[in-house]
Structure formats: C-alpha cells, structure tokens
Amino acid sequence: MARGRPKGADATRTAIVEAAMRGFAEKGFAATGTREIAALAGTNVASIAYHFGGKDGLRLACAEHVIALMGGVLDQVRQGDLPSDPAIARAALTAVVRRFVTFLLLDPQARSVASFILRELSEPSPALDLIYRALLEPVHRRACATWGVATGRDPESPDVRLAVFATIGQIVYFNFARPVIQRRMDWPSLGPAEVEAVADTLAATLHARLDADREHRP
Amino acid sequence: MARGRPKGADATRTAIVEAAMRGFAEKGFAATGTREIAALAGTNVASIAYHFGGKDGLRLACAEHVIALMGGVLDQVRQGDLPSDPAIARAALTAVVRRFVTFLLLDPQARSVASFILRELSEPSPALDLIYRALLEPVHRRACATWGVATGRDPESPDVRLAVFATIGQIVYFNFARPVIQRRMDWPSLGPAEVEAVADTLAATLHARLDADREHRP
DNA sequence: GTCTATAAACAGATAGAC
DNA sequence: GTCTATCTGTTTATAGAC
Question: What pTM does this model have?
C-alpha cells in the first residue's frame, strides 16, 4: 500500500492531526467530517477512534499540536532572564511583535494554528483550557513583566495587562482579518514586503504607547 | 397592508433570523441545526425552507440582518462633515473607539453580530462581500480620513490605513477573546466598569499613536 | 402560511476480519 | 495497527394535509 507517507502508528497519528488541523481551520470543527479527515490523512475512519478515542480526542490532540508548535515560536519570549534596562525591554518587546506578526502572516502552518485558537475562543472546549494554561497565560504574563521593565509600571496592574492584550489583539487581527485587509490595502498577495509594512505600523504603535506610559508614570 | 402582527409571516421570518444569528454565533454555521433554529424561533423546520429557500438562504438573510443592525450603529460614524480641526478629529476618533468598544462588549446583539462577521472571515461566503462593501470599507475609509485630519498625514497612505486597522483590531480583539481576557483579568463578569477600563486603555493607545504621528510628520 | 411525516444523505462510533 | 462493513442517530430538504 503505497500512500506516499511514512508508515507506522506515529506517522498515522501525525497525518491525522495535520489533516484535522487543516479541516478545522478552514471549515470549523462540526463541519469537518471524520471520513474527510481520514481520507486527507490517507487512512480510514476507524483509525481516528483507535488513535484518539473519537473526534473529541482528536480535537484535544490538535490543541496539543498547537501548543507544541506555537511554543517553539514563543519560547524565545519566555526563555532567559527578564531585561533589567528599560531600553532593552523595549527592544525585546519590539522584536517579539515583529517575530510574532511575521510568523502569523508568512508561516503556512500559522494559518491553521491561529484559526484553531480563534474557533476555540468562539466555541470553548476543554482544549481552550489547555491552550490557555500552557500558552496564552505564560506568554501574556511574561509580556506584562517586560512591559513593566520598559515603562517602570506595575507589570500586573490592570492597565498594563489590558495594554498587552491590546497589543496582542492588533497582531492577531491582521491574521484573521486578512481578506478584508488585503482588499482594502490593494494587496494582491501578502509577502515579506507587506508584512514588513504591517510590522512597522505595529512597532510604531507599540513605541508610542510605551513612551507615553513612561512619561506619565515615571 | 396587514403587517406588524406578532403572528404574521414577517414576524416568523424575523424570529427565524434572530434564532439563527444566536446559533451561528455560538456554535457555528454547520453545527447549528435547522430543527434547533426552528424550535428556538417557535416554529417548524419546513418554514425555513419556505421563507429562505434553505439553510444557505437563511445565512444570506442573516448577513443582511447584520448589515442593517450595524448600519444603525455606524451611521453615527459616517454621518456629518469631516472635522477640520486636528483636536476635534482626535476627539471624534476617541469617541468612536469608546462607543464601538462599549457596543461590542455590552450590547447583547453585538455579540452575535461580531461573531457572525468573524466566522465569515474564517469561511468566506458571498455574505462577506456584501458586508465588506456595505459596512467595513466605508467605515474604514471614514476613519482614515479623520485620522488624516488629526495627524496631518495623507489619509490614504498605507501606514495610516494600517494604523486604523490596528486600532480596529484592538477593539474587536476584546470582543472575541473575551473568555481569555476575563480569566486573565480576574473578571467574573464584564460590566460597564470593566468596559470603561478597556476603553481607557484603548483611548490611551490611540492618543499615544496620534501624538507620535503628528510629531514625526507635521 | 404552518405544520407533520418522511425521504435520502450524512454523521461518529464500533465489531470483527486480517 | 489497519481496514471494511455496519449500527444508530442526525442532518437538510420536501411532499402533502390543513
């Protein structure tokens, strides 16, 4: 049986998860059938129940896949000691924003990952709990800490936490509103040049906000 | 003509659309069954096919409902002449941000409306075209024009258009990421007090960005 | 216009051969 | 582990009574 993909149980698991990620991202959880996923993964329907216990188990496995994938990108954020100098903290935040928006707009895997999280936010499931604890909460907390160093403010104050959320919101918006943005910007395609323009705009907003924070609360 | 009666055909149409909006927003298009919609609307399954031709027709009818509903809110944005003074333009943008975020977070109808648009962005259908032309494009263009007055920059320059998108992104993020935000902010509920905190943060970011724009490009 | 009953296609889960 | 065949329930669409 030549299927064009590696054999073995582990390869099958991976193939199913990746096929499910594509389906869930493009059409949603309920709209993506197990038969469709199995066919896309080059296997049969029963293997989904065998490997994941059912469709819900597959959804959880996708969440773990998302965490592992995004964790690799964001580990650079969580790793290492907190910057001690405001200027360095500011540069670190800028770098994270640029790296994050580049990943979200250019990496082909990012599309399904972001879409998966977005759908979990609309229809919360146990998978969202997992993603929140392993991904969203630690990253947000670390970003708040860095923001605190950059501005001299209390990192866990409501306003700093909200400002960090607003910054994240800007970034992810450019991912999921892509069809509207491309149309309004007259961008036939969204390549590195366009991403740099977006990153420049987001960095400018970030810098303006950080500077304002430092001025008003020294 | 005999209309406005609670039991007429028009009332049935409205009830079905509103029930469908709730279902589509909470669980998605595919996951919401026609039986469930009919039951929620207090009618039977067959009436959906009778009034809308089928489930797809109901989806288009929901898009028109969204446009009509948001049109009422956004007419306040589009109405009147453009401000001529930078300070007034700045105040106008601030007011729009505050009104928009308050609407998105407090109005019960806004939740399903925003969620419907969000799902259209993930799974584009003919409804998205309609919403873009009638709603998103005019509002964004008007916001860019006001931004131009407030900062003295070219309203249709790529960076202004992107900055306006970023501002919009911040706002809508607080709508769809609500479960994550409530959890991280330790907010058991999201009422007027919490919305004001969000609005303050967004207004601060807006002001910082506008001031930076005016300084660097007088 | 509203509703019941039904049709035809679909879903996810599973038993059992290999 | 992989797969076919099948079970059970649900979906949308529709025919026809009222």
Answer: 0.94
